[in-house]
C-alpha cells in the first residue's frame, strides 16, 4: 500500500476543488448547482480505469496494475480526508459520487492481478472463474455510476462508462470461453477418420484474490475441482490451530469469501477426497492508521492555538482510548478518537509537532509531523497631504495605521529620517516646513512590535515652489481655465446652431449628448460569483492567494480594517454555497453591504 504522503498535494488541490465547488446561490432563486469540475475529475478517473484494463489485458503490461493502485490510493485519500468536512456539516456532492468509484478501483486492482496471473498460467480455469466473479461485482458499481446525474446549471451531466464496459465485457467473454469448455476424460475415437475434440482435463486448484490483506478485509478463495462435490478449505494459523470450511462445487468451480480477524501468517489449502492443493501462504497485516488534523495550525502571537487531531483507521473508524504522544508527551484520545492540546507563543515562531501512535494488537502505528505557526498581525499605513506647497510655509501630513493601534511611526523625507510621531487610535499627523524649492518624497514607516508586523506607507510627492512662482502659476492656471470655458461655450453654441440649420424641415435637432460618469462596479446578485469577485480583488490588491480556503483567508487577514465585513461575507457564502441553504433577504442585504465595505477597504473599484 502506498504512503499517505504521496497524496498530500491532492489533499490541498483536488479535495478543495471537489468539496468546495464553484456553486452559486441565487439571491431570489433556488441555488443552481455547478458540478463541472466534479464531472471532469471523475470522467478522467473512468479514463484511467479503461487505460488500466487495456494495458493489463491487451498488452500484458504491469503498468496497468500500477495505474490501478495509484488511482485507488488517490480516491482513498480523498475519502479519508473528506471525513473532516462531513463532521463539520459540509454537504458536498463528492461524498455521493465517490463511493462506487472507490469500490470499483479496489476491485480493479484485484482484477489486474488476476489477469496478469491468468496470462502467466496458461489461462487457468480457476483464475477464469475468479475473473468472472470480480467483473460481476464491478458491473454493479458501473450501474451505480451510470445512474448518477450531475448538473451544469440546468444541464444534466452523465458519466460515459462505455469504454470501461467494453473492456470488461471482452475480458469476461474470454474468461467464460475457458469456463464453457468440456471437462472430461477423453475417449478413444471409434475410427481413424473421427476427429477428437479439444478437451481440457480439470484438476484441483486454489487461488486467492489477495495474499496480503489487512485485518477484516474481505478476500476471495476460488478454484477448480475434478468432481462436482464439495471441497474443504483448510485454514491453518501460525499457532497450529486449524479450521475447515466446506464449500459447494458447481460445474467444477468453487468460491469462498473470507475475512481474517487477527493479524499473522496463515496457510490455506483445498481438499477433495484424497486430492489436496499446495498450501497458500497468507500474510494478514494490521489495520493501517493515520492522523487527521481538524483544527487551524496557525494563530496570532500571544493567543492560544488549540491543535486537534483525530486518530482513525483504514476503514475511517475513530480509535478512542488510545495512547499517543505529542513531542514525546503522552495523551489519551477521547471517545471520538480526538486529542487536543493548547499552544501559545509570545513571539513570531513556528514549531514542529510530532504526533505518534505506537499501534496495538490490531492496528499499525503511525506518525505525523505538523507545523504550528504563530504570526504577527499585518499592518498597513496610508498618508495624505498637499501636492504643492510654498517654500517656507507650514503644511500638514496626515496618516492612519490599520489596525488602529497606539504606537510610534517614523516619517521619512527624501529617504532620510525626519520625525517620530505617535499614533493614537491609529491616527497620526506631522507639520512640516521646507525652505528649498524641490520635490519631496515623503513616506511613513512602522517598525513593528512583538504583536504587529512592520509596514511602509504609500509615497507622497510634494512639490515645494517659490512664493512668486506659485502666484504666477495660479494666474496661469486661471487664464487657461477661463480660456477653456470660453472656447467650450463658443463651440457649444456653434454646434447647436449648425444642427438647427442642417435639420430637415419639421424635425428637431438632436439634443447634445450628456457627460456620464464611469459606471460603478456592480456586485453580482449571485453569492458565489460575488465572493469570487472579492477573492479576485484580494489577490490583485493584497496578494492573498486564491488557493486558500475561505477560512484560511480570514486567518491571514485578522486585524485588517475590512476583516469583519469579510467575515460576514464568508459566513453567508459558506451557508449558501457549501451547505446549499438559500440566504434570507436580510442576509443578502448584509452580504451586499459587507461586499461594498470590503471593496472600499481595498481602495475602491478603480
TrEMBL record:
Region Disordered: start-end pairs: 497-518
Name of the featured protein: DUF4129 domain-containing protein
